[in-house]
Design brief:
Order of helices and strands: HHEEHEEEE
CATH architecture: Roll
Radius of gyration: 13 Å
Distance between the termini: 38 Å
CATH topology: Nuclear Transport Factor 2, Chain: A
Amino acid sequence: MSDLTTTVSRYLDIWNEADAEKRAAAIAELFTADAPYIDPLAAVEGHEGFGAVVAGARDQFKGLTFELHGTVDAHHNQARFQWGLVTEPGAEPIAIGFDVLVTDEAGRIKAVYGFLDKVPAA
């Protein structure tokens, strides 16, 4: 379980990485080459696809941070967890989501399925 908790932490770190080159390197290290990322707003595959989704979110929500809310629930090679998009650590999230990630035998993410529980007002 702790390995998947670490994977989730590294996954959220990618969303919070401001440097595009560091973000791309982290994605290449953590994700398999053809991993799909699917949520209500995007359905992409591979490192570049996921990287573009993260870059778009970072542009849209400048200065905000993704943080884990609650604990990671994991078994076998899958984990589910809730995250919040916050203005500062511990603040009330302006957005809340629920993601499920699946890893391969080596511990690399081979798929992410996301759900949005709370979205910012338009």
